[in-house]
Amino acid sequence: MKTGTREAMVLSEVLRTNACMVDHNNLYLNSCQDQQLRSILERQQRHTLDSFQRMVQMMQSHGMDTSKIPMPTALTMATGGQSTQFTTGAQMTAQPYSTGQYASGSMYTTGTAGMSTSMNPQMTGQTGMQTTAINDKMIAEGALLFHKCGADTTTRAALESSEPHLRNALTNMARNCIEMSYEIYNYMSQRGWYQLPETPQNFISHSATQQQYPPQ
Q1: Does residue 139 lie in a domain region?
Q2: Which of 45, 84, 155, 184 allows an S-S link to 174, with CB 3.0 to 4.6 Å?
Q3: Which CATH number characterizes residue 142's domain?
Q4: Domain that holds residue 164
Q5: Residue 94 has what pLDDT?
Q6: Which comes out higher in pLDDT, residue 127 or 65?
Q7: Is residue 14 in a domain?
Q8: Share above pLDDT 90 across residues of the chain, in percent, rounded to a whole number
Q9: Which pTM value belongs to this model?
């Protein structure tokens, strides 16, 4: 596959993932009750949108067609549904994500502030089926999974890209996804929403010697 075609394919997949992430974050923000979680999501949303615009700009500067790439709803509404073109003279280097006051090691307020008691745990839709109301724990879980998916997608895209500028930008995007996922993890861990399983007491660990010389 020629250089350029391969980059266009992997970048399109990265931007599709980012657009989906932005749209879901908008849904999360509409339902988020905890102000701490809302602050994290808003900061991450701004960074993701900025990264999306920079990557589209880089594609356009390399002569790639971006008209088929789905745009986040926020950008589509801002441009009236028209194809978005970004100024090629602006800075295109991916910026590192900063967690701000929620850096690793910072403490979050514990308790149930994010679990609104006014939320009906079950709602009946038009189909008559019961659905569970979304809460802050679900939102954090979804955001964490999106960042993990983003890190995986952008890492694979960087491995498939041979153009130096695009590869570096994708590498930075992957690193930023990792930082954002770690920020969400710290938030969830402090609230007791992300607990690792304890090692079973009867867990058997096979040493290298046992693996090399199995019992006869």
Answers
A1: yes
A2: 155
A3: 1.20.1260.10
A4: 5-95+134-194
A5: 56
A6: 65
A7: yes
A8: 53
A9: 0.70
Position 120 pLDDT exceeds 60: no
Residue 111 domain-assigned (yes or no): no
Q: What is the DSSP string of 94-143?
A: PPPP--GGG-TTPPPPPSSTTS-TTS-SEEE-TTS-EEEPP-HHHHHHHH
pLDDT digits (tens, 9 = 90+) for 166-210: 999 999 999 999 999 999 999 999 999 998 888 788 887 776 555
- Read off the tokens for 123: 């709602």
In angstroms, the CA 115 to CA 104 distance is 23
Q: In this structure, what DSSP letter does residue 83 have?
A: P
Q: Which residue has the tokens 């931007």?
A: 15
Place of tokens 């879901």: 24
Q: How does pLDDT run across 78-98, given as a tens digit for each residue?
A: 445 444 444 433 444 556 777
Cα 213 from Cα 216, distance rounded (Å): 9
- Using the structure block, give the residue that is written with the tokens 């046992």: 210
CB 57 within 8 A of CB 92: yes
Residue bearing the bigger pLDDT, 7 or 131: 7
How far from 20 is each of 59, 92, 147, 177, 208, CA to CA, in Å? 19, 22, 11, 14, 45
Token pair of 130, please?
Answer: 């019961």
Domain count, the chain: 1
3-state secondary structure of 67: coil
Q: How far apart are CA 76 and CA 86, in angstroms?
A: 13
180 within a domain of the structure (yes/no) = yes
Query: C-alpha distances in angstroms, 112 versus 81, 84, 156, 158, 211?
Result: 40, 42, 38, 40, 47
